[in-house]
Amino acid sequence: MRVDCEGCAGCCIDWRPVSPVSLDHERRGPRAPLDDTYNLVPLTRDEVRNFVDAGLGDVLTPRLWKVPAGEGVEIDGVDVATIGGNPAFFVGMRKPPKPVAPFGLDRTWLRACAFLDPETLQCRIHDTELYPAECSEYPGHNLTLDQETECERVEASYGGDRLVDEVPPTDQHGLLLGPHALGAKVFVHPDPSRLEGVVERLQRRSLTPEDRAEFVGVAVGSHPGSTEVDADRAREARARTLQTASWAGELISTWNGIATVLGASAADAPHPDEVEVKRGAPTTPGWDVVRADN
């Protein structure tokens, strides 16, 4: 499977503000996400734990889904999707606004993965043990499930050949579906009463560090194939996440404070290195190096 990611990163960026067409593939049907994040990458339990161990737990955020009235558990006036009567969720990586220039555009304020270098549009944790399987195998899962890829959406809107090879890899590891996902990628919060107020803040994009740490803890404390949660392990992960003050978390706060309107020009934004590398973010090699290696 070959893709042309140079100058794109459409799967890492929320490019809805500059898209000529509606991008609503995540919000069709009765079970739509409660958050408004675009293409939130689901992490496995082990990946969530690895982020916490690496001191990057403050970059993680939850996703829950709303369902028709009577089909879930009501929290903050919203019926939330459940498994076994308790709220279901997965954990992904936060997307602050950044000055990016994908698809040949000028620098524009768009939400992008916390680990995306806004200058090179390369991942700062690529080729590290933290790089999620969902990212490394993208768009293989979509092709396996016969679902449209972000590469194809970019092609349709901005031209070019992004999806160069449509044959998915045969050695995919991150595709967890059905019962296999339970406790390994889809988690169950054991106590809906602890989420009062949290669901409302999730919808307003105003989650607190305590809110996010609550879900990170439950994910780390989960048992694959089960709805059970190890309370001690969850408590420890929650506490460690709350104690985290990573370079990635700092740059999220900084970009949030600098950004203007999503979709607006970011010509006057500071150079990304001044915000990210200055705070400890790993550098990226640039595309000349990638082309030379290939």
TrEMBL record:
The cross-references to Pfam families, in alphabetical order and at most eight, read: DUF7531
According to the lineage, what is the superkingdom? Archaea
> What protein name is recorded for this chain?
YkgJ family cysteine cluster protein
Q: Which organism is it from?
A: Haloferax marinisediminis
